[in-house]
């Protein structure tokens, strides 16, 4: 797991590109503290940079940029390929030879053997740049479910890319996108493909860019197609066995590491299952990392202890309180790559995991999205009826005192983004317009200027799963896990997003996958023989902090001098009265903070 950057340009003077890439890599050093490297072609038109976090093959053999033996293919890689040993054996049969135990070398050999068809064979989390000197092309490639980011900017036939937005913008002097605040206030994050910078985008997940180094022309193509058509699983018992087998395999191969590895243990269903499975595979090197609170409504210490008693591993637990938030909030804001209303929890747990000596951890992210663990799986059914309500009534929702009803104005738009923002959005178009001194018409134009090929209007639980995976998880949870983890030189792995596991789950018919008695019932039943009843037979808490109370007491967040206009001051007043969710005020605070 690392950080990467690069520039391909035919117009720069010698040494300019190298200096810029070196500067970007210096700004990315937090995510790759163990080593650094730079490759430049003879005339410095192509420069690739790398910062290394050593997890596999800790020797100098893992140094990057890495090339094949003929030095025709050069590559910088951020991520892990969990099936690289199987691919390596297959490639050896074709005559390939290897000089390291790295997955990077396997990717290079796979590309040499199969070309871009190799990308669909990879199982893992990754973003990489590959320079093919024979074809004179550069490929930017991103993993199937977008766990690892790869941002790019194109200007004057120059391609610049990096693992994070900030270094890309600072070194290349890219201006701010004037619409980022609209998107951020609506979502609580900046959704892909957009960023806070003008003309800086994320490579789409499961896709690759092919850049012609001579002409500056490019294409972006998909290599991974989700929802593959296979025989559907309709039998409950077969489904349970398939889930158990596929997740067990995912956990086993994601425990692969030459450095210390652990599990984030919140005490909920997902992290408890991962901890128990990981313990079956490797109970001698495993560590668990947990956070708990004095506020009993949020505290899961007893559930964490219950699982910790069942596993044989080192256990690290940390009490977090109001003072911790007050002390560290300025640093958390500084460590963000882009504004987000999430990430505080990921920042703290990553900090403690790193302090425990870990370089990699397993996270339970993805289970709620796949098995129906969020309230949106129930709420999405309301959209069927609401779509029949006259627009005049829906527009009136913008004036309701209760903030839950203000988002009704999204329902009148026939667009997946509007449906999602009704389910999960923060502010209504009218509220955003008031905060930013613009019009609701402009707000809607910006928000609905997003391209998606999702067109289902059934509003079933499979649709909720699509929204949660492709919008909330993709743009909020995965992005924040990557940024906050790498800020502490920590790789966060996600077994529930293993390609083979996701494919297995998506081939289970909805009536079996989403059972009505209990959220995530299929997942629970698949592991009832090892999962204590106390873990699943209780209300869902989620991995969250007591932030409603803590932020109300935080002098930075509630400083009235920051909130400039009438709409912003009204939101602050309602928050202080307990009538606005903390996430909405935190978003509003960051809009003022990043002025």
Describe this structure in words.
The structure is a single chain. With 595 residues, the chain is of the alpha+beta class. It folds into two domains: 2-222, Aminohydrolase, N-terminal nucleophile (Ntn) domain (Glutamine Phosphoribosylpyrophosphate, subunit 1, domain 1, 4-Layer Sandwich), CATH 3.60.20; 236-373 and 461-545, HUPs (Rossmann fold, 3-Layer(aba) Sandwich). It is 41% helix and 16% strand. The strands form three sheets. It has a six-stranded antiparallel sheet, with helices on one face. A six-stranded antiparallel sheet has the order 4-5-6-7-11-12. It has a five-stranded parallel sheet with strand order 15-14-13-16-17, with helices on both faces. Helix 8 links the parallel strand 14 (287-293) and strand 15 (314-320). The chain is globular. It starts with a strand and ends with a helix. The relative contact order is 0.12. The model has no long low-confidence stretch (mean pLDDT 90).
């Amino acid at each position: 797991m690392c950080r990467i950057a690069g520039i391909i340009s035919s117009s720069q003077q010698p040494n300019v590109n190298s200096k810029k890439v070196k500067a970007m890599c210096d700004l990315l050093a937090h995510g790759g503290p163990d080593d650094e490297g730079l490759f430049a072609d003879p005339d410095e038109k192509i420069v690739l940079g790398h910062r290394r976090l050593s997890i596999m093959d800790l020797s100098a053999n893992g140094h990057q940029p890495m090339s094949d033996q003929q030095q025709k293919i050069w590559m910088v890689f951020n991520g892990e390929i969990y099936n690289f040993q199987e691919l390596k054996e297959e490639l050896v049969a074709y005559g390939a030879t290897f000089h390291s135990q790295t997955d990077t070398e396997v990717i290079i050999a796979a590309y040499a053997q199969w070309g871009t068809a190799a990308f669909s064979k990879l199982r893992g989390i990754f973003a990489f740049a590959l320079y093919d000197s024979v074809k004179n092309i550069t490929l930017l490639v991103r993993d199937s479910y977008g766990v690892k980011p790869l941002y790019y900017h194109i200007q004057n036939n120059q391609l610049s890319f990096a693992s994070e937005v900030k270094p890309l913008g600072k070194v290349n002097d890219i201006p701010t996108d004037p619409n980022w605040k609209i998107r951020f206030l609506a979502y609580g994050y900046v959704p892909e493909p957009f960023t806070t910078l003008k003309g800086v985008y994320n490579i789409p997940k499961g896709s690759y860019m092919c850049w012609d180094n001579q002409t500056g022309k490019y294409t972006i193509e998909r290599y991974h197609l989700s929802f593959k058509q296979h025989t559907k699983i309709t039998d409950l018992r077969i489904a349970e066995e398939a889930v158990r087998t596929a997740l067990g395999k995912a956990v086993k191969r994601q425990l692969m590491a030459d450095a210390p590895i652990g599990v984030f243990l919140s005490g909920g269903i997902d992290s408890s299952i991962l901890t128990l499975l990981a313990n079956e595979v490797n109970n001698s090197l495993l560590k668990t990392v947990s956070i708990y609170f004095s506020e009993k409504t949020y505290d899961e210490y007893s559930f964490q202890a219950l699982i910790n008693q069942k596993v044989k591993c080192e256990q690290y637990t940390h009490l977090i309180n109001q003072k911790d938030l007050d002390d560290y909030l300025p640093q958390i804001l500084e460590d963000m790559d882009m504004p987000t209303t999430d990430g505080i929890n990921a920042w703290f747990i990553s900090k403690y995991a790193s302090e425990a000596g870990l370089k990699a951890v397993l996270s339970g992210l993805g289970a709620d999205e796949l098995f129906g663990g969020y309230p949106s799986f129930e709420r999405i059914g309301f959209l069927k009826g609401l779509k029949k309500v006259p627009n005049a009534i829906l527009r009136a929702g913008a004036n309701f005192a209760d903030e839950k009803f203000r988002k009704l104005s999204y329902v009148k738009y026939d667009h997946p983004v509007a449906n999602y923002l009704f389910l999960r959005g923060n502010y209504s178009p009218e509220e955003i317009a008031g905060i930013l001194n613009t019009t609701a018409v402009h707000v809607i134009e910006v928000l609905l200027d997003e391209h998606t090929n999702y067109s289902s209007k059934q509003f079933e639980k499979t649709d909720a799963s699509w929204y949660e995976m492709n919008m909330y998880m993709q743009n909020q949870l995965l992005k924040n896990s990557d940024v906050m983890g790498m800020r502490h030189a920590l790789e966060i792995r996600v077994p529930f997003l293993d390609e083979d596991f996701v494919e297995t789950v998506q081939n289970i018919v909805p009536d079996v996958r989403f059972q009505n008695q209990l959220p995530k019932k299929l997942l629970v039943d698949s592991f009832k023989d090892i999962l204590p009843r106390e873990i699943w037979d209780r209300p869902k808490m989620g991995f969250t902090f007591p932030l409603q109370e803590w932020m109300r007491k935080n002098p930075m967040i509630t400083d009235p001098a920051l909130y400039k206009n009438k709409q912003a001051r009204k939101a602050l007043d309602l928050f202080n009265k307990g009538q606005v969710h903390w996430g909405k005020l935190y978003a509003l605070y960051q809009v003022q903070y990043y002025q």
